[in-house]
Write a structure and sequence with these properties.
The chain is of the alpha+beta class and 478 residues long. Helix content is 15%, strand content 35%. The longest helix is centred in the last third of the chain and has 33 residues, at 442-474. Strands 7, 8, 11, 12, 13, 26, 27, 28, 29, 30 and 31 form an eleven-stranded antiparallel β-sheet that branches. A five-stranded antiparallel β-sheet has the order 15-16-17-21-22. A four-stranded mixed β-sheet has the order 23-24-14-25, with no helix packed on it.
């Protein structure tokens, strides 16, 4: 039989394979993170009917090339355009993630519980157990956990759990710093009479809110005021000190002649919490000069020794207090038309540190461009929960598609070390609220479809023509 028949048959098969691949590409034109494939053809072996010969210089006879007849075509390879990124689709969902590659092709690491797979599809959601999972398969997203100090542990990847009993709340913090600012009017009649009352809010170590009340009273010396601690109240305005039935402080007189307040039934000297202080201002400028007491030298700050209460017994909430450094340096004293604006606030006046915080409830979760996942809490805290690790391969095109937008390693792709890399290591990033679309180019697919169709038709014509030649040969006997 004629060789052309078999060559044409092989051509039909390979063009059919190419058409299958084109059809799959077009079918997945809207599949998230789909990577298009293309077929590469390869020649089948050749039949050599006459070998090549050397030329003879003496006789002047030249050499001859070999005579070979090809025996058809075969699908040499199916190449995946895995490095070609698809367009970005904005969704607004914070758990829709898109990989932006810089120098390497990155993959999310997911697991079905027994095996690890790799994907570019970043449509994740939080399941009932708080894990980040693929929307299509339920595979859990893998990454790195954080230690007790909030530092990322870049070791073996594991399932990322962003919502749990441990992450639903943020630990409270006790207040350690506070400040007093504003104008204490030189002509304030209240300060000259009974004293101007200011409060400083603060938190204990369990996040309960309290306020320390101070009385600032003018002395006979201009620009000098006495500062006294008068009470400490809880968030409902109830004093921490014991009161009698008439609402007066329960007091006793010690052997040293001092007046002791009752705190949870224990006598305590208020002066040990805050020693009566002297607040001084520069009369020419109206600016703060110093604050001092019998136990504190002249300075910008003075200490509120709340830890004294911890030595007596636990607070009524079972919590403890921290000492607070109170900064008076931003207070002023000048004629403000009889209006005083002086007041207290918790936290450092420069950067807000030491403010203290109540127990925080989780209000939101966000993903940074370096893959770090943070929890936001209603007490102002932002806590690092975990970090997404990505996989990179020596030959990403060597990965094997296993369906569901996932890949697995092969002998030619390179192995996954179980740890992964940080995506920002080579300048790549993760975009939140976006998905990667398919990288199928419809114009090129339709062009390839036309070429494939014509190639199939041409091969079918070869079969028809070869059949006609055989028919002519058979007709020689007639």
């Amino acid at each position: 039989m004629m060789r052309s028949l078999y060559s044409a048959v092989s051509g039909l098969k390979t063009h059919q394979t190419r058409m299958d691949v084109i059809g799959n590409n077009i079918a997945n034109v809207n599949t998230e993170a789909f990577k298009s494939s293309s077929v590469r053809f390869s020649e089948i072996m050749y039949q050599t009917t006459e070998g090549a010969t050397f030329g003879n210089a003496a006789s002047g006879t030249g050499g001859k090339n070999a005579k070979q007849i090809g025996l058809g075509v075969v699908s040499g390879s199916t190449a995946v355009n895995i490095t070609g990124a698809g367009s970005a689709e904005t969704t607004g969902n914070p758990f829709d993630l898109r990989l932006n590659d810089k120098n390497s092709t990155n993959f999310f690491i997911v697991s079905d519980g027994a095996n690890r797979f790799f994907t570019r599809a970043g449509d994740f959601y939080v399941d009932g157990n708080g894990y980040l999972c693929m929307s299509s398969t339920g595979y859990t997203l893998q990454g790195w956990q954080v230690d007790a100090n909030g530092n990322v542990m870049q070791d073996q990847v594991s399932a990322l759990r962003v919502m749990s009993s441990a992450t639903k709340t943020s630990a409270p913090e006790a207040t350690t710093k506070a400040y007093v600012s504003g104008v204490l009017d030189k002509n304030d009649t209240q300060a000259a009479d009974s004293g101007r009352v200011i409060t400083i809010p603060f938190f204990d170590d369990l996040g309960y809110n309290y306020s320390a009340k101070f009385n600032i009273k003018k002395t006979n010396t201009d620009g000098t005021y006495d500062v006294k601690l008068t009470d400490i109240v809880d968030s409902k305005g109830n004093s921490l000190f014991d009161l009698d039935k008439d609402g007066n402080f329960v007091t006793t007189t010690g052997r040293d002649g001092k007046t002791y307040y009752s705190y949870n039934g224990n006598p305590i000297d208020v002066q040990s919490i805050f020693t009566d202080a002297s607040l001084k201002f520069d009369q020419s400028e109206g600016t703060f000069t110093s604050i001092s007491s019998a136990t504190s030298a002249a300075a910008d700050t003075i200490k509120l020794n709340l830890s004294v209460l911890n030595t007596q017994s636990a607070s009524k909430n079972g919590s403890k207090f921290s000492d607070i450094d109170v900064d008076f340096s931003k207070s002023m004293n000048y004629n403000n038309n009889g209006t005083s604006t002086i007041g207290g606030m918790n936290g450092d006046i420069k950067d807000g540190s030491g403010k203290g915080k109540a127990l925080g409830a989780l209000t939101g979760i966000s993903v940074n461009d370096d893959g770090k996942i943070y929890g936001s809490y209603d007490n102002g805290n932002t806590v690092l929960l975990c970090q997404i690790s990505v996989a990179q391969f020596a030959n990403a095109s060597g990965l094997e598609k296993v369906g569901d937008n996932c890949y697995q390693t092969t002998l030619n792709s390179g192995d996954f070390d179980g740890i992964g890399v940080e995506i920002s290591g080579d300048g790549s990033s993760i975009a939140s609220g976006q998905l990667e679309m398919s990288n199928v180019d419809l114009s090129s697919q339709f062009t390839d479809m036309i070429v494939t169709q014509r190639g199939f038709q041409a091969n079918s014509r070869v079969i028809t023509t070869s059949d006609t030649l055989l028919e002519e040969l058979i007709n020689l006997k007639r």
